[in-house]
Amino acid sequence: MPYLQSSALKSVFYDEAHHALRATFRESGRTYVYEDVPQKLYDALLFANSVGAFFNRHIRDCFRFHEA
């Protein structure tokens, strides 16, 4: 699991086989799985200047998701 410097996200994990992104949020402690997320988008998330802002703009509400 990669180290994240983010006030919004506690952790992220990417399942390459299923193109699924699992994200755990700091404040709520809830974990959500986002489906059909491209590997390139996950890679960009890890290197974004603001992980939370990138997540909100490019992943949240852009992909189907469910609570894990």
Any overview of this molecule?
The protein is an alpha+beta fold. The protein has one domain. It has helices at 39-46, 51-58, and strands at 9-15, 20-25, 31-34, 65-67. A 4-stranded antiparallel β-sheet has the order 1-2-3-4, with no helix packed on it. It is globular.
Give a quick set of tags describing it:
68 residues; alpha+beta; four-stranded antiparallel sheet; 2 helices; 4 strands; 29% strand
Q: Helical proportion?
A: 10-25%
**What overall geometry do the principal axes of the alpha carbons give?**
globular
Low-confidence stretches: none
Overall pLDDT level = 95
The share of residues in extended strands comes to 25-35%
- List how many beta strands DSSP finds: 4
Oligomer: single chain
- Rg, rounded, reads 11 Å
* Structural category: alpha+beta
Largest sheet: 4 strands, antiparallel
Instruction: Give me the strand/helix succession.
Output: EEEHHE
The total number of structural domains is 1
Count of alpha and pi helical runs = 2
Strand order of the largest sheet: 1-2-3-4
Distance between the termini: 17 Å
What's the topology here?
Elements: E1 9-15, E2 20-25, E3 31-34, H1 39-46, H2 51-58, E4 65-67
Antiparallel strand pairs: 1-2, 2-3, 3-4
Short description:
This protein is an alpha+beta fold and 68 residues long. Helices cover 24% and strands 29% of the residues.
